[in-house]
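Dear Dr. L.,

I hope this message finds you well. Following up on our conversation about the binding site, I have prepared a predicted three-dimensional model of the protein together with 2-acetamido-2-deoxy-beta-D-glucopyranose. For your records, I am including the exact sequence and ligand specification that went into the calculation, followed by the structure tokens. Please feel free to forward this to your student if that is useful.
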Amino acid sequence: MDVRAGIIVLFCLMGFTCAEPVKFLDCGSTTGKVVTVDIAPCPNQPCELHKGVSYGVNVTFNSDVLSQTSTALVHGIIAGVPVPFPIPIEDGCKSGIVCPIQQQHKYNYVNLLPVKTQYPSIKLVVEWELRDDNNKDLFCIRFPVKIVS
Ligand SMILES: *[C@@H]1O[C@H](CO)[C@@H](O)[C@H](O)[C@H]1NC(C)=O
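The resulting structure of the complex is given below.
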């Protein structure tokens, strides 16, 4: 963890409000319904993501299905082209969700979005999907971000 990430975490541990509900687009959630999307920290929208910092992502959603598994898939959409955006933990069942996922149940999917130092300073749209046993989207969300140094 670098100094800036450390400071942000410390700031959050001191009890400041770091999570901000962000405006998002639903890109085809079929077996679930998104309630809120929180990015921490994101004081202004679109969220400014600093290189070398990991951001907290917290998606609150309701599930319409029973699913043993859940797998996250993240893309950065740059000029209309989806590019894979690697995240450390793809298993949704290890990201704040107790599996099996129950029908008509509310969940908080909590994960980190690491912004690598070698990423370019650009605006892009993050697309985050969580897929169920049948490869259908429990949620699919899109939100704009700006990568800054
Ligand atoms: C995620 O968001 C929900 C709803 O805003 C909140 O109740 C929950 O505490 C958050 N979880 C984490 C780990 O931030």
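In brief: The chain has one helix and ten strands.

With kind regards,
A. P.
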